[in-house]
# Entry
Amino acid sequence: MCGRLALTTPPDAVRDFFSYVDQPNFPPRFNIAPTQPIATVRYEYGKRRFHLVRWGLIPSWVKDPASFSLLVNARAETAAEKPSFRAAMRHHRCLIPASGFYEWRRTPEGKQPYWIRPADGDIMAFAGLWDTWSDPDGGDMDTGAILTIQSNRMMSEIHHRMPVILKPESFETWLDTANVDTREAKKMLRPVEDDFLVATPVTTRVNKVVNDDEDIQRTAGPEELVLAAPSSQSAGQGKRRDPDDSQLDLF
# Structure
């Protein structure tokens, strides 16, 4: 799954990577959590545009968001068929910029957090969905979710799900909802290569949303580990857990 992410790459570098026309200026965020704003890139009138949306998708047909489950992630395998995501898969696909994300490895001894980032570079794109919810008084709220897929070998020792990561050569196709239908878009949703990401154990400071500073990405010392790191965290030789159908499993 993906329940926390970071965007610390400078705004100009993010703009260059995604080629959107806007020039937003935003501060580095080290610990972005659900219900907080996340950056998205989507097509509008043939151009890539930058938008902030609330993390946690609310479909447009929902009457009362307070009674609706928080949809932080959408399973790539079933999003095209699920009522909550079906329309967004067809009409509202987006890219979600991230410098990296956090995941927690469950064991009987506790949960060890990991900072997970590209092995080469400091920015990547998650496949995302967005939608606009309108309240009875006419106010609009844009919300979004990250698509996840079964983990590759590296990630499988930490968690059985991971975000779908798209490469720059796929951006145009994914965003082109006018000409690329759901069936073709779904073919793009697959685990990234095993060596694309690296994982580093970090301290449990990341567990608290109020901790939003560079220190939470610091490699944990032996005395700060919740448990011993996986024996082969980069190779990912561990067994995958049974799939979990939950759309919300932050840790």
